[in-house]
Amino acid sequence: MERTFAVVQWIEGEDSGKFSDVKTDAIRNYDDSKMDQDGSPISPYSAFIEWRHGKRRKGGWPHYKGDVLFVSANRFENTSKLNSLLEEVERPQLTKRVSVAPSKYRDDSDDSTDIEAEPKKVMKSKVRADPAEDFLKTYGNGQLHPVDNHDLRRTLVELKQENKDLKEENTKWKDMVLQGPTPDKSPSSRVSTATSASPTPSQTVSQSSKVEIHPGTGVMIDKLAWAYALISNSATVFVRQLLTAVFPLEILMVSNLRGTKRSGGDPRLPLDKNKLDAIYSATLERFPGTPLSSIGSAVNAKITELRSKSKTSTPHSRAVRLIDIKS
């Protein structure tokens, strides 16, 4: 029997730390093989989950990260598990009462009593949190890393050197284009599928200069492109930056999000699913709560913009523009 109900604990969003009863279809890319026969996770299972609270937004439900704690085929078992988890959290912890000597046996003139009572006051006082740590937890995805000025300077020098190398390669490519056009290959030999990759100047950069945009996806881009994406102030800008860094321009010009065919136009090839999933996951990690439809709209809007610029440019300027975009 299909297990369609789940108990999750939110990691992000307004309900962070709380438990919820959801359906498994609200869990993005839900994999039932990660749960055992009793409905418990075989290993810690985190995923992006639709937060269906209040009125549904125009772009769809927001997605937040959460832990899948239990799945079941019927709502009764799911509700029972949820109630048991809530009882464990709300159950008060029993503490031993501290014995206090009666006041009539105390000697007010004895200074040792005041000295011993002082540490108790310190223990009862609540330690105030560091405002800097609260700020980093709120705006830095809750990850605190020790800052090493030496490492920061070294990283900055490496990025500057990579930027210099890329500019030199870009200049060489521009000179090659200006010297004379090379014979174009046929569309069939140039692009077989949307997943095929064409040689780009960035491929001359060593593998150590690349970074994985989301753990476990294997999708790598240049560190410099990743640095530009991280300074994006919105999910839309972040998606547009990643799209041109992950896919070659030739692929984007003949593809769209799902490979649909427009009326009166040529059929479009679908973008590589693994690379798209990596962009979706990286965006949800960077901007929690972003509707999936907004990410898809940003992808198609960027592709449409690239096609529009290509149609309005001359063949010579189009080749130079292609080099500019890659750089």
Automatic annotation (TrEMBL):
Low complexity bias (residue ranges): 186-209
Source organism of this protein record: Merluccius polli (Benguela hake)
PROSITE patterns membership: BEN
GO MF term list? DNA binding
Domain of life of the native organism? Eukaryota
Enumerate the residue ranges of region (Disordered). Answer: 100-125, 168-210
Provide the BEN domain boundaries. 216-310
Gene3D superfamilies, per database record: BEN domain
| Descriptive protein name | BEN domain-containing protein
